Amino acid sequence: MKILILFLAQLLYLNAIGQSITINAVVDITFPANTEVLTPSRRAAVKWPDSSFDLIESPGVVGFADSVIIIANAAAGPVNRRGVYEMKAGLDEVYGWEPPPNYMSAIQNIKGNQVLIIYYERENLGYYHYYTYTNGAGLVGRLEFQSRNKSKATMILNQLLGSIKFKL
């Protein structure tokens, strides 16, 4: 009986902290505990009328939590160590001509990973994009949400970025 109680307690604890997901055998990342990870057939059934992204065609893992679409993809291969800095400079230049409302880009060091975070709004939607690279691997992703849910999306983003563990 004690073993059963310990086992159930451990399951509840793991569910409370999130779902650890391995993407393409390259990176482990933790999605919120209440995330519904969408299979390809489920992606087709999700109704997100304001979405500007094709969830069916999105590579990687697609999840849905607290009215936030979460997309993460990883790959192994040659990586430019200055990739996030060059990407930031390029995107800032492109968006500098006609920036979307509330455009922001920043590079943060999160648990030893240099992460480029971009935020902007279009119409009633908010978007976070994130990019990070390490020795021979990269992780890219985005969150899409109604602008009024920005605080929820920011909490999800912080959890995701704080949980990144490259396997290479």
Total number of distinct structural domains: 1
What fold name goes in the CATH topology slot? Protein Transport Mog1p, Chain A
The whole-angstrom Rg is 17 Å
* Shape estimate: globular
CATH class: Alpha Beta
Helix content: 25-40%
Give the name of the CATH superfamily: Mog1/PsbP, alpha/beta/alpha sandwich
**Count of extended strands:** 10
Mean pLDDT: 82
Distance between the termini: 40 Å
The chain-level structural class is: alpha+beta
Q: Could you give the order of strands across the largest sheet?
A: 3-4-5-9-8-7-6
CATH architecture grouping? 3-Layer(aba) Sandwich
Content of β-strand = 35-45%
Uncertain ranges: 1-16
Please tell me about this protein's structure.
- The structure is a single chain.
- The protein has a seven-stranded antiparallel sheet, with helices on both faces. The chain has a three-stranded antiparallel sheet with strand order 1-2-10.
- The longest helix has 16 residues, at about 1-15.
- The protein starts with a helix and ends with a strand.
- The chain has helices spanning about 1-15, 40-45, 85-95, 150-160; strands spanning about 20-25, 25-30, 35, 60-65, 70-75, 105-110, 115-120, 125-135, 135-145, 165.
- The chain has about 170 residues and is of the alpha+beta class.
- The protein has a single domain, classed as 3-Layer(aba) Sandwich (Protein Transport Mog1p, Chain A), CATH 3.40.1000.
- It has four helices and ten strands.
- This is DUF3805 domain-containing protein.
